[in-house]
Design a protein that fits this description.
6-stranded mixed sheet; alpha+beta; 7-stranded mixed sheet; globular; single chain
Amino acid sequence: MNLTNLKKAFADNGGQTLYIKILSPNDNSKNQVYLGGSFDILNILPVHEIKTEEAGDWKRERFKASLNYYWLDENGGLSEAANSQLILYPKYPEVRFSGFLKGCYNAPSELMSKRLEGRVLVLSVGKYGKVLGYVAHPESEIATEISSMSNLEIHGVFMVLNLNDRDDSRKSLLAELYRIHKLNWIVSKRLNHDGQILPCNSSNCGGYTLEAELGITPNGYSEPDYKGWEIKQFGVINFDRFNSSVITLMTPEPTGGVYKSEGPEEFIKRFGYPDKNGRPDRMNFGGIHRVGEIHPTTQLKLVLSGYDIESGKIRNSTGQIMLLNESGIIAASWDYSSLLLHWNRKHNKACYVPSLSVKEGEQQYKFGNRVILGTGTDFQLFLSQMAKGVIYYDPGIKVENLSYRPRVKRRSQFRIKSGTLADLYKKSEIITLTEQQL
């Protein structure tokens, strides 16, 4: 196996980018493999579940994130390592890789169980969210070839080697958005799961219309929308003032509290209020809730449990975003492990697109020629902006027909002003779309 053959083997299995780490003696199956001092690795490697593990007599408090991991062998074959996982220690923070040999028939045990300086670990993401790995001996041809390479991009502890043009997805996205901008007014529409175009008649069809133009079909996976980019549409009054609009970042259902244990209907009865427009037999739960403030209508306070505002770090793996009443009862909560899984993976590369809407006969949308691109994020950045009140909880939950066959609308929204998006990303750009991007 040489580097050329290794690159081909990864590419044949869907890999597009190689992440290369020169291993230290401590990087082994006993001590685990160190993958960085932040949770940025979740932006690279897809995990399909994150669990919390509290501290015990000998264990440190941590998150455990399971991987769909496979070792690549000398012949390009794959061997599943079903017990592979990332261990995330929030108090440092620190991420380590473990379980990669256990139960794997053809694992590179000879290399990964030893304290051997200079081994080369190569990771990539293949088809269907598979994480692919290969390890080379310090004296191998691959190790020699990699040591001679210069000017590789650095991402945390990794050197990055792209198997194709790394700007392909960005260029493709910007070209598509320019094409859509030039279409002018577009009749409101959406795609179904089979890719068929259907009419869209609700007031929030801007996002569906943009997704339909980009060929994005609905799916049940928490993955980015278009070639690794999360696409967010937001309405504006005019395209020159797109920095003052409100953007919904995510709409996760609560994972705890009265909302979860007793249901949204009971939640609204206990913490909601009669419809302010006088519509009968209806109760609502809404309004902007910011961390540390008691909302005047719901009388609930938004709290970041287990998060240290001063250091900007998660100090408790069982921490939650919580809505509390004056008695300390948790009305609703979102555990950090579920939000961590969603945020880093889905928002690492995000594109925010402004739109105008008009309803003259048919609902129509026009999309602007300036967009916001944000790259590189971390869930602790999200929490830091919540702590400052920049991100807030702004639900639109209601129950109608309260006395007879109640009908509940669920919508828990975490929102931000478009002008403050830059603080969520390590790099933020405002791009003017041009014909040159086609």
